[in-house]
């Protein structure tokens, strides 16, 4: 970015474009809702990795956070963590993804969401490399983009599953088994996010949310797949345990350090 004003305007325009894309994605301006677009390939009952419909309420939180981030950019004068460029890219890619779905190009949407995931991963790396300037930045920036990354990590799998179904792929005749393998990979990614940097919360939380709703979908809706529901629930639990362990570990270290200091002090007094 060439200057604060250009950066702020770029973020604001990108956010407005993302909101326009979202309006189209919910059926405004003649668009079809996402679960009805592209022949319903992204509906809650379309594939073994599709989350139940209620899962998508997380977008309301993400969009509120992105709006807060846009306002925060007008307050932040330096962008010391260098997150504006990938943030802008994520907003534009979000709008592009919605437009590709509206056009029925589910295969192309996989490319777009993969790029979005890569951009959010870069952004997450920058956020974990440099501590936030305060509690507000931690909530508005780290929290928002953590949720964004966590959700897109799960949504990418569902998007790929939808594209494969649209291409006539049947999961080698064992779609449940293939879905379980994918969920295992998602669990590994979630554990990685949970232990990355300074104990991130939002990214693992969003992944747990998405996985939990996959479990609900496969337990209560078609395609009915109890094994996949269990696998999704286990993946969510594994990520939750990894995040909890990461939060407890520094505290244990701190307690051990305090104990060692107290012991050393007591010994020194006895020597005297």
TrEMBL record:
Entry-linked Gene3D superfamilies: TspO/MBR protein (1.20.1260.100)
Keywords: Membrane, Transmembrane, Transmembrane helix
Keyword Cell membrane on entry: no
Transmembrane annotation, as ranges: 49-71, 83-100, 106-124, 145-164, 176-196, 201-219, 225-248
Domain of life: Bacteria
Protein name from the UniProt record: Tryptophan-rich sensory protein
